[in-house]
Write a structure and sequence with these properties.
The chain has about 270 residues and is α/β, with parallel strands linked by helices. It has a domain of about 70 residues. The protein is built from 10 helices and 12 strands. The strands form 3 sheets. It has a 6-stranded mixed sheet with strand order 8-9-10-3-11-12, with helices on both faces. β11 and β12 form a beta hairpin. The longest helix has 17 residues. The termini are far apart. About 40% of the residues are buried.
């Protein structure tokens, strides 16, 4: 019998491939405060990486730089073999222009804490806008794929609704569909359940689980949901004071942490 390809087998197959994302000695400061202190990180195609750590440790900054929402103070980021914040000109690396940034970040999708939906558009229109205006898809193609993605997240019956008519959990699922429509190679999730009422958290996490099981893209999830990280991630990073203080399989990092700061951090979730 042929082996069924799952998310885990896809990640295993991709494990020897060239990383889809590389951070090379990346620093980030806000004024006099250095938030990231020399991050070196590689993410493989189809790998699911959970990022945990205390507030102010730099978790969100890491993924905001990948989405080009924050510029590194120094260091380099490479996405699918292309420099993100730099480009080559006359044989030298120079700061990237807006055109280059747009092209490289086209392979990246992000779901934010607070949905960021357009309130004057239906949820179908919210999903169609980027494929039409960014990827220059024709309207019918964008509409059909948007409907498919909304059905994937369980909202096929809400396509004509406006954001104000949806619950927080439903809005977050629209945000996921909107990101998926763009066919990203890397999907970023920034504490996507932190703004939700507790009873809505489960429905959103279940959708992310379903997306992860397909295994097609790399995912980076900043989360405080430890059981979820344990269940979904191939690797967990613990950030503390701007450095990766510990990383490894979730069974080791979450269930058998070696770093004392990580032990104290996890203790708060178990007490």
């Amino acid at each position: 019998m042929a082996e069924v390809e799952t998310a885990s087998t896809q990640y295993t197959a991709a494990n020897n491939a060239e990383p889809i994302v590389k951070y090379l000695d990346v620093h980030k400061s806000f004024g006099d405060v250095e938030v990231l202190k020399g991050i070196n990180l590689e993410i493989k195609p189809a790998e699911k990486v959970a990022v945990i750590g205390p507030s102010g440790s730099g978790k969100t900054t890491i993924i905001r730089m990948l989405m080009t929402l924050e510029k590194p103070t120094s260091g380099k980021i490479i996405v699918d073999g292309n420099y993100l914040w730099h480009m080559e000109k006359d044989g030298k690396l120079v700061p990237a222009n807006e055109k280059h940034l747009r092209e490289v970040r086209g392979d990246i999708g992000m779901v934010f804490q607070h949905f960021n939906l357009f309130p004057h558009m239906t949820i179908l229109e919210n999903c169609m806008t980027a494929p039409i205006h960014v990827k220059k898809e024709d309207k019918q193609t964008a509409k059909q794929r948007s409907i498919e993605m909304l059905e994937k997240v369980g909202l096929g019956d809400k396509i004509d609704n406006y954001p104000s008519q949806l619950s927080g959990g439903q809005k977050q699922r629209v945000a996921m569909a909107r990101a998926l429509v763009m066919r990203p190679k890397v999907m970023l999730f920034d504490e996507v359940t932190s703004a939700l009422d507790p009873e809505l958290v489960g429905e959103v996490l279940e959708v992310i689980r379903d997306i992860a099981k397909e295994g097609e893209m790399a995912m980076v999830l900043v989360t405080h949901e430890m059981d979820f990280a344990l269940d979904i991630a191939d690797r967990v990073l613990f950030l503390d004071k701007g450095v990766i203080a510990e990383q490894g399989p979730p069974s080791e990092v979450i269930e058998n942490p070696k770093n004392e700061r990580l032990q104290n951090f996890l203790h708060r979730f178990r007490s």
